[in-house]
Amino acid sequence: MAKKVRIDSAGAREILKWASLGSLTVDVAQKIADSAEHTTSRGVEMPIEVYERDVTDRVGANVVIAHPAGMAVEAKYGILARAATDAGIEMKARAY
């Protein structure tokens, strides 16, 4: 029989505010950025950048292809998704 699990929301919120978790998050994001690379057929290298999220009180980082065609390149080739998987991040589809 399945057992019910109750998440301590206040505890989870507190963990997401830890400075050490923030540095770990940025380190993993940088690892993903370092392993992700893409050069177009015309020889243009796509810049991969890491931005530390500081909008909320929770830690986080975004890894982006900093190029006008970055979203299209990610959609077609999955550069960042592949790099994240290689870094040990489990990728799941997001329900909107």
Automatic annotation (TrEMBL):
This is HK97 gp10 family phage protein. It comes from Herbiconiux moechotypicola. The lineage of its organism: Bacteria, Bacillati, Actinomycetota, Actinomycetes, Micrococcales.
